[in-house]
Amino acid sequence: MIEITFDGGKVVTAHSHGHMIRTDQPSDNGGGDTAPAPFELFLASIGTCAGIYVKSFCDNRQIPAENIKLIQTTVYNKETGLPVSIKLDIKLPPDFPEKYKASLLHVAGLCKVKKSIANPPEFEIITSSK
After folding, report:
1. pLDDT (tens digit, 9 = 90+) per residue, 104-126?
2. For the chain, what are the domain ranges?
3. CA separation for the pair 127, 54 (Å, rounded)
4. Four-residue CA torsion sign, 47, 112, 85, 16
5. What is the pLDDT of residues 17-61, one digit of tens each?
6. For FRET with 92, which of 8, 57, 118, 129 sits at 20 to 30 Å CA-CA?
């Protein structure tokens, strides 16, 4: 379970497993721009999820991951403002072993966030009393 609280202004915080994930809105949307907007966190969850798969792949093979970066680019539908494509470019150092490149691409695609988007869950929004 994740509990969501309203913490003043446009700050909305998710409380999950002892962690607080704070969000805010940009100042041009009435917020204080003190934290990422929820949609920024959503997009970041895609890249960070793929990143943990890449990092684990490298760790399991004793390949240093410090010089690896993932660059995420999103293209939006101009009418709806929704993403139409998301590209993850895994920037590898020149000494990354060639024999592992295809496998690395495969494991990055195993990300649970990406899989959830590809197979979206049903949403149910209800109200109840405390």
Report:
1. 999 999 999 999 999 999 999 99
2. 36-118
3. 40
4. negative
5. 999 999 999 999 999 999 999 999 999 999 999 999 999 999 999
6. 118
**Residues written for the chain:** 130
- From CA 104, how far away is CA 89, in angstroms rounded? 12
Report the C-alpha gap between 94 and 60 in whole angstroms.
Answer: 20
Mean pLDDT within 66-71: 97
Dihedral, 21, 27, 29, 32 alpha carbons, nearest 10: 40
Q: What's the first-to-final CA gap in the chain, in angstroms?
A: 15
The pTM score is: 0.89
The topology (CATH level 3) of 36-118 is GMP Synthetase; Chain A, domain 3 (3.30.300)
Buried b (16+ CB within 10 A) or exposed e, 28-58: eeebeeebbbeeeeebebbbebbbebbeebb
